[in-house]
Design goal:
The chain folds into two domains: 90 residues, no CATH class; 129 residues, Leucine-rich Repeat Variant, CATH 1.25.10. By secondary structure, the chain is an all-alpha fold. Helices cover 68% and strands 0% of the residues. The longest helix has 18 residues.
């Protein structure tokens, strides 16, 4: 095992807090595997060791990320998110296959999904927008986290006014998904898109509100004025 992985795990074990480990479980419906520490602490560890590995070839760093993912520990997945995001200046289109594999194989909870997709996948899609159709394919996956990833990968770009058309298309593909983690994911995407495209998102919601799960609907209109929120949730059918 690479010495840097050994060091990281020793630090994580040393800083693990049983109290935080116990309370962390409250935020997840399914059981998670975690050391028990605040995200800020993990970030400090990730950035400290990034200084040691950043000069290595990207393929080697990806190998370290995979080793971290294999442990299934939540905090180690956060380190992957930090490191893969730090590599954004080195992305190549072939990296999408690696990222797809990670999401489909190792991500098993919303925190790992969002941490990786918001930044790494979001940055990748901004650099290679020709691959956004890949996210539409993910909406049809049997893996709930692939489907959530299809939406949350565009959350940060959508917040900045980008990819409206694609965001609405992904939301439409996920519209009647019966998984609440997916519903929250695409509802969040619509909410962020509404910051700069309120009218377009509101029109989408009004056209589809008969079919949207209540969870997705409420997320999507969260930032809208009170009168629009009231109109969206009004039961007039």
């Amino acid at each position: 095992m690479d010495p840097v992985i050994v060091q990281i795990r020793e630090e994580l074990k040393h800083l693990a807090d049983p109290g935080i480990r116990k309370t962390s479980q409250r935020f997840f419906k399914d059981a998670i595997k975690c050391y028990g520490m605040k995200t800020a602490t993990v970030t400090v560890i990730a950035r400290k060791h990034w200084k040691e590995v950043k000069g290595r070839p990207k393929a080697e760093i990806f190998g370290l990320c995979e080793e971290l993912y294999r442990s299934s520990y939540l905090e180690e997945s956060f380190i992957v998110s930090e490191w893969s995001h730090a590599l954004s200046g080195q992305y190549e289109d072939a990296d999408l296959a690696v990222f797809r594999h990670w999401v489909d194989t190792y991500i098993t909870n919303w925190a790992s999904c969002d941490g990786f997709c918001n930044h790494t996948m979001g940055n990748f899609m901004e650099q290679y927008p020709e691959y956004i159709d890949e996210l539409k394919i993910w909406t049809q996956s049997q893996n709930r986290w692939m489907r959530r990833a299809a939406a949350v990968s565009l959350v940060v770009p959508a917040k900045h006014g980008k990819f409206l058309k694609e965001s609405l298309e992904i939301a439409e593909l996920l519209l009647t998904d019966d998984d609440d983690m997916v519903q929250k994911g695409y509802g969040w995407l619509l909410k962020e898109a509404s910051r700069t495209h309120k009218d377009a998102v509101f029109s989408f919601v009004m056209e589809n509100r008969r079919f949207m799960p209540r969870t997705a609907l409420r997320y999507s209109i969260e930032l809208m004025p009170e009168d629009l929120r009231a109109a969206a949730i009004k039961r007039d059918w």
